[in-house]
Structure formats: structure tokens, C-alpha cells
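Regression test case RT-17, inverse folding.

Input:
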């Protein structure tokens, strides 16, 4: 199974969760944060660790969420996570422009791998976040279009080492 998503620190996740749903009570917020933490632990605590491949725009690194310390911690966590054997992080720098020609927004391609007979364990699924609703699709043409967009973004992104260096450099800028 492979996911293309992001790993978050508790403080960073809390700021985002509260901003999205400020009327939620503390218990609801705590429950949502615990669920996110459990999902993150899958990357390091499962016997069969999923592959996580990310392409993040440089904008994500430079958009301050929760203040400089929270951002520095978040970026350090991201850089550290990118050293795991099952995690790949590549940054799409500002100078790459819009390689797909379109604003794609955040999306996740979930590939469930193969079953014991070499057949797909489940259909590849696209998940795309929206402001008022989310989209899940297993439609072949949608999966193909997002898969091609991901390939284009990967080709335009920095390599893994340069990406990790950039993330750490920006984390130091937040600490300055």
C-alpha cells in the first residue's frame, strides 16, 4: 500500500484542526488529533510499513502555521521523516512554476498493492481535499489523470537530498 500525504507534529496539526473547526470542543479536537497520530504511527510501527511518497510545493514550507517555533518543529519532523526507508519527500520549488499547467490542489493516490494472486488488493483510489467537500474516486480516467499529474510534479521537483536540505534550511530560517 502506498500513500502520498504529509506527516505532522501535534502542535502543527492542532493549529490546523482548530482553525478548520473552531467551534468544536476540546474532547472532539483531542479525538481528531489522536486519530491523526495513530495514522502517522502506521509509517513506523507496522510490520509491513506502507510506502509514503510526497511532493510538496515550496509554498507549504513557507506558509507560516502557528508561529515560527511550530513551523520549525514541523519542518524538522518532515525532514527527519524523509530519512525513513519507506518515505520519499520531494519539494516542488517556486522556480518550477506550474508544471501541470493547472492548479491541482492537494491530492492523495492510494495504491493498495497486490493480493496473494498478484491482483490489485483494491482499486487505486484518488482522494482530493476541498474546502466544503472531499472527493474519492476509483474511476480509471480520474486515477490516470492524477497519476500523470503526480509524475509531472515528481519530474519538476528537487531530488530527495536537495529537498531535505531545503526543508532543513527553511526550518533554520524560522528559528532565526
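Golden output:
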Amino acid at each position: 500500500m502506498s500513500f502520498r500525504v504529509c506527516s505532522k507534529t501535534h502542535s502543527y496539526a492542532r493549529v490546523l484542526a482548530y482553525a478548520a473547526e473552531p467551534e468544536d470542543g476540546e474532547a472532539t479536537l483531542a479525538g481528531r488529533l489522536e486519530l491523526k497520530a495513530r495514522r502517522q504511527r502506521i509509517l513506523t510501527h507496522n510490520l509491513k510499513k506502507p510506502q509514503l511518497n510526497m511532493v510538496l510545493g515550496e509554498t507549504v514550507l513557507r506558509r507560516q502555521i502557528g508561529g515560527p517555533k511550530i513551523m520549525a518543529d514541523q519542518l524538522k519532523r518532515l525532514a527527519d521523516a524523509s530519512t525513513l526507508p519507506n518515505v520519499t519527500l520531494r519539494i516542488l520549488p517556486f522556480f518550477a512554476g506550474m508544471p501541470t499547467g493547472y492548479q491541482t490542489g492537494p491530492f492523495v493516490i492510494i495504491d493498495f498493492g497486490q493480493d496473494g494472486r498478484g491482483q490489485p488488493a483494491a482499486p487505486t483510489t484518488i482522494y482530493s481535499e476541498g474546502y466544503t467537500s472531499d472527493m474519492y474516486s476509483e474511476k480509471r480516467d480520474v486515477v490516470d489523470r492524477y497519476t500523470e499529474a503526480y509524475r509531472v510534479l515528481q519530474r519538476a521537483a528537487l531530488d530527495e537530498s536537495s529537498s531535505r536540505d531545503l526543508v532543513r534550511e527553511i526550518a533554520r530560517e524560522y528559528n532565526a
